[in-house]
């Protein structure tokens, strides 16, 4: 079953206007610099098949596997989840640009996950570990969805008050949904703070 990316409150924020690389401008992407065209939302992106295949299992199969698209000069991605804007960021990331930010990390991470793009995933992980301003709850949601254990540890270690823990675990139902490793980390962190009545109190007193 295909994963659905975590919806972020930052998704509605306007992204940076300036592109770091140009993939659809004929003056910037000359014929000798590309060999395929990928179309997303009607927008054409001039790419190098071997480069994309190197960075993505999906594109490796699409361009060099047993798919009809392997012999097509132009390939259209019709997935409604994929936007031209997100694909622009993804391509920039495969070219080593520092394009990941709080506005696009959710969508780029989603593409990296479904397309098997290890290098792009690592860029997203590094950003989430080192630079993001996202709230702890959202970082933990992303970390859980994509199996980012180190991000879980870091996010929990940065909790600064019992109030934050209560926001993460407001009731018994929320507590029961926690996996054991997460519960243990939250309990350990909670011991650093005074703990007025909350669902973790009974756990702490055991």
Automatic annotation (TrEMBL):
Residues 34-92 form the BTB domain. InterPro entries: BTB-MATH_domain_protein, BTB/POZ_dom, SKP1/BTB/POZ_sf. Residues 1-25 are annotated as: Disordered. CDD domains: BTB_POZ (cd01165). This is BTB domain-containing protein. It comes from Caenorhabditis brenneri (Nematode worm).
């Amino acid at each position: 079953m295909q994963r659905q990316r975590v919806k972020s409150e930052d998704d509605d924020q306007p992204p940076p206007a300036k592109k770091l690389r140009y993939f659809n401008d004929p003056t910037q992407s000359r014929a000798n610099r590309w060999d395929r065209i990928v179309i997303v939302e009607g927008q054409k992106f001039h790419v190098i098949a071997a480069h994309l295949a190197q960075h993505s299992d999906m594109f490796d199969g699409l361009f060099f596997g047993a798919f009809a698209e392997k012999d097509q000069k132009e390939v259209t991605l019709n997935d409604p989840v994929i936007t031209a804007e997100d694909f622009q960021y993804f391509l920039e990331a495969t070219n080593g640009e520092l394009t990941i930010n709080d506005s696009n990390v959710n969508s780029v991470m989603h593409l990296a996950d479904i397309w098997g793009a290890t290098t792009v995933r690592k860029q997203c992980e590094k950003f989430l570990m080192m630079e993001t301003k996202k709230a702890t709850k959202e970082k933990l949601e992303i970390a859980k969805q994509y199996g980012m254990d180190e991000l879980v540890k870091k996010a929990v270690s940065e909790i600064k008050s019992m109030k934050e823990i209560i926001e993460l675990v407001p009731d018994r139902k929320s507590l029961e949904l926690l996996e054991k490793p997460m519960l243990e980390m939250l309990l350990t962190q909670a011991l650093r703070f005074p703990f007025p009545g909350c669902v973790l109190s009974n756990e702490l007193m055991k």
